[in-house]
Amino acid sequence: MRAELPRELLPDDLQRIRASEGWRRDRVEVLETSAGPVVVKGQRPPRSVTPRRMFNWAMQAAGLATLKVPLRDGGPEAQQVEVRRLAELRAAGVRVPTLMHVEPGFFVQEYLTGPDLSRELSRGAGDRLAVWQQGVAAVQAVHSRQECLSQAFARNFIVTPEGIAAIDHEEDPLEVVSLPQAQARDWLFYLHSTLWLLPERRAEMLSVWERVVGAESRLVADFMHRLARRLAPLRHLPSQRKPWGRDIVSAQAAASFLNTWSRS
Ligand SMILES: Nc1ncnc2c1ncn2[C@@H]1O[C@H](COP(=O)(O)OP(=O)(O)O)[C@@H](O)[C@H]1O
Ligand SMILES: [Mg+2]
Questions:
Q1: Ligand 1, residues at Cβ distance < 6 Å
Q2: Domain 11-110 - what CATH class?
Q3: Is the per-residue pLDDT at 114 higher than 90?
Q4: How far apart are CA 146 and CA 189, in angstroms?
Q5: What is the pLDDT of residue 7?
Q6: Where are the domains of the chain?
Q7: For the CA of 155, the nearest atom of ligand 1
Q8: What is the pLDDT of residues 204-258, one digit of tens each?
Q9: CB 118 within 8 A of CB 154
Q10: Mean pLDDT, to the nearest integer, of 106-126?
């Protein structure tokens, strides 16, 4: 995203990357190279898809087919999906890291400077509602290009000085759901991972959300209403972080928000 840097890695850089332990141990490693800082993402070993098959079956049975996941976990195909999605999203004009090198076992992408959206929203300071709206606009920008994300959780958006960029494209939801379903899923993941961090100013967020849904296709709006109805019982979960923890309160916040919107 920084045009002044050469985007080519030199043979020396690649040798250092290949020899590095970091990405093998931690999966993701940031390294300095002659083309600037880069992120090396190692391939995860393939795992059984049985848990994913069972998850999909449960989602289907619960009327939540929108949340089905691709039947793939790690391995060379997962890396191929991420490399392909990075190229497709970039071609569509979506802000994603530049892909710099691919080889069996790992790929190299541009390092994006800035906190992730989850961290940015967790900070007490600044106009957090404005940051939340920037994230909303980033998802809208993806959808307006007839695209979807992989896992639109706050931690997978980087707040760079040039704007918000999306990372982590290892799953292509279009392998198992339609585009409008994948887009509805993006919104659910976005709301689920952000709302609980901003318990105040719900009324303003609801009016932003009404405008968002109004600008989406009719099908996406229908899928959102369906999700809102299916998830509505979760609004009765506790809403205090302590002692319940983030999984409970994030589900509660999203279910309650969507229920208020859907019934209005
Ligand atoms: N291009 C990037 N620029 C900056 N940080 C990145 C980049 N890609 C990944 N990261 C960091 O590495 C973490 C893990 O990468 P991610 O692609 O999300 O993999 P995972 O599938 O393990 O979640 C991210 O949460 C982020 O902190
Ligand atoms: Mg991630």
A1: 27-28, 39, 41, 97, 109-112, 116, 155-156, 158, 167-168, 170
A2: alpha beta
A3: yes
A4: 18
A5: 73
A6: 11-110, 117-263
A7: 25
A8: 999 999 999 999 999 999 999 999 999 999 999 999 989 999 999 999 999 999 9
A9: yes
A10: 94
Q: What string of DSSP letters covers 62-95?
A: TT-GGG---S--SHHHHHHHHHHHHHHHHHTT--
Q: Which two tokens stand for residue 65?
A: 């087919």
Question: What's the chain's length in residues?
Answer: 264
Going by pLDDT thresholds of 50, 70 and 90, the confidence category of residue 5 is low
Given ligand 1 and candidates 28, 98, 112, 159, which is best to mutate, with the most ligand atoms within 8 Å of its CB? 28
36: which residues sit within 8 A by CB, 6+ positions away? 2, 5, 110, 111
The residue contributing the CA closest to ligand 1 atom 20 is: 168
The pocket of ion ligand 2, defined by CB under 5 A, consists of 156, 168
- Residue 136's nearest CA partner among 69, 187, 61, 76 is 187
Q: 68: CA distance to ligand 1 center in Å?
A: 23
